[in-house]
Amino acid sequence: MNIIKLNATDSTNSYLKRLAHEMQIADGTVVISEDQQKGRGQMGNAWLSRKEQSLTFSIFKRFKGVSAEKQFAISMVTSLAITEALNGMGIPKMTIKWPNDILSGNKKVAGILIENVLEGAYVKHSIIGIGINVNEVVFPNLPQASSLHLATGIQFQLEAVFDSVLKVLLQQLKTLSTEGYSQLRNSYENKMFRKEAISVFENTEGVRFNGKIKGISEIGELLIETETGALQKFRLKEVKLIY
Q1: Are residues 34 and 125 in the same domain?
Q2: Considering 95, 113, 206, 219, which has the largest number of Cβ atoms within 10 A of its Cβ?
């Protein structure tokens, strides 16, 4: 396994993208940084990380047989693998908030940013960025954030958490194909945060409405049953869960 350890970088995803552009890099190459200064999350959000308290790393993964149409499979596998690994470390009440925030209870402890490169109708490779709040205790102006330490009271060794998560994730990614998409989708839906619970959502126009998360569509859209009984599909950035 090729692991590149950096003292500091702007973003591990950006670093890997530059590296892949400049040279042929090995499948499964991992970049981990002690200090990520401009971490990125979903929808252009910044990812807060603190030196010696957070884990920030990215994986370069080539795929065969993962269709572009069902590329959400990569997000599902990654989310489920991290959930499985953290659950194995005793982190309680693990769920996935669509599309790929990892929660303990109702607090976010890990985030994922996946950037896919397509070739024709298939995914050529992905850069999978992962941020895990490990030992932080303070999250200024982030009331929905937490850490593994706050969730358990345990002080974790960063390297041990990294090794555990990476082992499970690489194992799951190795066998990924969209042939088993339905089974993967079922596993993902079973772990979804607030599935079947009446929740408040906000659309792009700022209008709030009540509904129930029913699951995801074939291409990873969020399925919400509204008060009228209609089933609506939402893509990333089109709806926000208020909780």
Answers
A1: yes
A2: 113
- Residue 241's H or E segment, with its range, is strand 239-242
pLDDT of residue 179: 77
- Domain extent for 208: 198-242
The 10 Å Cβ neighbour count of residue 99 is 19
pTM: 0.93
pLDDT tens digits, residue range 29-45?
Answer: 999 998 776 555 554 55
Residue 127: other Cβ atoms inside 10 A:
23
Same domain, 86 and 141: yes
Confirm if 107 and 151 have CB atoms less than 8 A apart.
yes
| pLDDT above 60 for 209 | yes
Structure-token pair, residue 113: 């940013």
Neighbouring-strand partners of residue 202: 208, 240
Q: Specify whether 47 is located in the same domain as 77.
A: yes
Sequential DSSP letters for the chain = --EEEEEEES-HHHHHHHHHHHS---TT-EEEEEEESS-B-GGG-B----TTTEEEEEEEEE-SS-BGGGTHHHHHHHHHHHHHHHHHTT--SEEEETTTEEEETTEEEEEEEEEEEEETTEEEEEEEEEEEE-S----TT-TTB--HHHHHS----HHHHHHHHHHHHHHHHHT--GGGHHHHHHHHHHTBTTBTSEEEEEETTS-EEEEEEEEE-TTSPEEEEETTS-EEEE-TTSEEEE-
Q: Given pLDDT bands bounded at 50, 70 and 90, which one contains residue 196?
A: very high
